[in-house]
Amino acid sequence: MDLIKNCDRYKNDPDSMHKLANLIIEERKYDENQQLELEKIREKSKLDLETARIRANDKDNNNEVNCNDSSSLDSLIKSIRTLTVKIPDKPEEWSFFFLSLERAFAAKRVTDKFKPEILLNLLGEKAANIIIYLKDEDLKNYDKIKSIILQEFEPTPQSCLENFKKATRQNCESHVQFASS
């Protein structure tokens, strides 16, 4: 403040300097108010976005698959079939198949009640061999069916040895990549 009062312009015309100082103060207050308004708008839009996201999640949760009629179950089976890898031919591929199947179940929010039916439908003719080993109450238990399938198609030591002997490293593969596959 002393620097301003000692200035020649202030000494010659103190009224205009007061007006200039007041104008600068008003501009700063206006800028601060604008910043506060902008901040309020940002916060409000964040809140609106969060509210919309919560509503969308609630909508998704309320739209769980209702599989009471056969047409919706058929469409669910088709969509699960699309989301999963094909039925494995090799025993060592079954764990990957179940991983993709369970991800598809999670994506489509399939209830535990329908998982065994969908699995047996996906297996098709391979399911005929498995159904022989199951009791009626086990046919409704997805985990039991999965464990029997994994037992039935478990890789034998002989098949693992054959796969090991057949394995060759590609030119573009590093040794680490080859060993991990």
Automatic annotation (TrEMBL):
Name listed for the protein in its UniProt record: DUF1758 domain-containing protein
Organism: Trichonephila clavipes (Golden silk orbweaver)
